[in-house]
Amino acid sequence: MEKRRYHPANMLFAIVKTVRGWIVPLIIVFFFNNTDGWGAYAKYGILGIILLSIISSILKWFTDKYTADERAFHLYNGIFSKTSRTVPYEKIQNVTKHTNLLHRLLRLTAIKFETGSKEKAVDFQVLTKEEASRLEQLTKGNVQEQAAIQEIEISGDDVEEEDGVSEQTVPHTEKKIIHFKPTKKELIRASFTSLSFLLVPPLLISFLLKFDIFFDWSEIRQYLPLLKVWWVTAFGLIGIISVSLLIGMWRVVLKYGNYELASDDTHIYIQTGLLSESAFSIRKNRVQGIEITQPILHRLLGLAKVKLISTGSLDISDETETINSLYPYFPLKQAKILITEILPEYEVQLSMERLEQKVLLYRLLQPSIIWLGVTITLYFWRPELLGYEIKWWIVSIVLLILIEGHRYLSFKHTSYLISEKFFQIKTGALTTTLFVTKRNKMIEVARNQNPLQRWLKLATIESINRAKPVLHNKIKDIPASEANRFYEWFHQRTKDVRRQ
Amino acid sequence: MQTQVKEPQHKLPKESLRVGLIGDVIFDAVILLIFAVLFGLDFLFEWPDWIGTVLLILLIISVPLLIIGYLGTIIDHRNWRYDIDEEYVQLRQGAWFQKDQLIPVTKIQSVETKQGPLLRRYKLRAVEIETMAGEYSIPALPDKEAYALRDEIAAYAKAKEEDD
Fold this sequence. Notes:
The complex is a heterodimer. Chain A contains 15 helices and 23 strands. Chain A is an alpha+beta fold. Among the domains of chain A are: 144 residues, PH-domain like (Roll); 71 residues. In chain A, helix 1 packs antiparallel against helix 2 and helix 11 packs antiparallel against helix 13. Chain A is globular, with a radius of gyration of 29 Å. Chain B is an alpha+beta fold. Chain B folds into 2 domains: 64 residues; 76 residues, Roll (PH-domain like), CATH 2.30.29. In chain B, a hairpin with a 4-residue loop joins strand 2 and strand 3. The chains are: A alpha+beta, B alpha+beta. The interface between A and B is medium-sized, with 36 and 27 residues. Strand 21 of chain A pairs antiparallel with strand 3 of chain B, so a sheet runs across the interface.
């Protein structure tokens, strides 16, 4: 197969990136420096660096090549020392596409194929949309073919399926079902829940304070009595509030206006962003687990954020946020339904085992190092604030109440479930996180016991999952018998795993 | 802790305790040497009085800690257990703070043996196992056993799951 060069616009993007990276030093040396002394050298130095990196990106374009056959990517690069790298498609964990404004202007896009947790991703920073979808199809096609072959092999024996080799019959129908697309109403609700409109007043005030060079405060002062007229004040306030709401809404629309959650037999697709678009796709059986987080406000409103855990990292560049999350303003129940829709092999149980009551006492009675440290420091140091001496015992008591409150909340929210195929744990004091994984997706477990736990017949268990970085989930102080059950349960994992 | 999962049985060899204790002696010697150098400098350059006091207090504190270090080495050695079968590597460490780990062999990426000068003196080798989650080591086994174990793990680890 012939080797292909990357798209020529790669050079343009590289140049833009270099210039943008060096723009601040460039301005500093050109406008804020006299030409004598080091300033002149710095100027040439920076120009030299920029020139060199432009030359290197042009040379890179001439030397770097790639091919994609039906099994793997072959990447060739290096100006002086050449390297070649082969990445088989089975290694691909998830795919992210990103189209920023410059890409859109030139009708191009970027695509990144994430491989395991330790290897580097296969990253195409600039390419045509056709080429991107050709590559994506290639990688997917291979996987589906394999899935089909495996399916024929296993049909007949009822071995538990390790990986969601899809349950439908061959051949696969390429049917994409759209599960969720926010309506206008939902976007409005989301913009209220996100509370991003609260950001506007402080921004407005700091803006006004900073830009007083454009107008004179003393001139404005003469208009102040106008505020006494009720309707002026009312209109002003309404104006500020509606501007805040609009900006908050704009932020939400920018991110979720184009949001779409879809899936077909084998993959899940998430698309987000209005101006610069991002798209994420993952093979269903590459999902290592699900994380449902509820910050305090979400919990009060019954909403939840759902995140799919994948082995590859998820941000395609530093500009984009991670897009492995589902739409973050779902009611918890709806989120649960959606999970069963897109990942039929996952089940999220909302009723879980709690910790024993004695654990609360055990935790409340543990000495807190922070509290001890602060109390002792304040006792000896006695700092003053605004002329008043801070009473050390007040601070100490308040801190103790906060710490014990935190411990109580964390106790109250901690729960776990070890069911036949799944492991669920929920932790957190203010923001709760529910993590669900399948037994065959856990790569290791550990069980710990300290002397006090042994005395109270408690233990700590830990599960490890593939992710980038590797995900450790711990639950402390569950009954020792349960810890043993967990250990044994993991020991039986071979039941759900099919060896190759 | 009682489980129906067979508890790991294999212990570390006696020589490994000796290696551990010699390691401790060397460590202590280095610590005492540092103290000696500091006291010497204090005496030579007539540092402020309080430095001498602080050094003395540190020395007094560290002596029992060093002795506890030997006890720790002995207890750790006694309670170290490992076991390997076709499916899992099991590790257990600690007496007061007990830690059990269960690692499926299919998740093992590499096994290697290592030997430092002390281990060589007693014909021992450490076996290091690398998985996707991290590295684990069985600190000292007789040469032959270490190689055998390495080969055994490598043979088991050949089996791959679909997911990998």
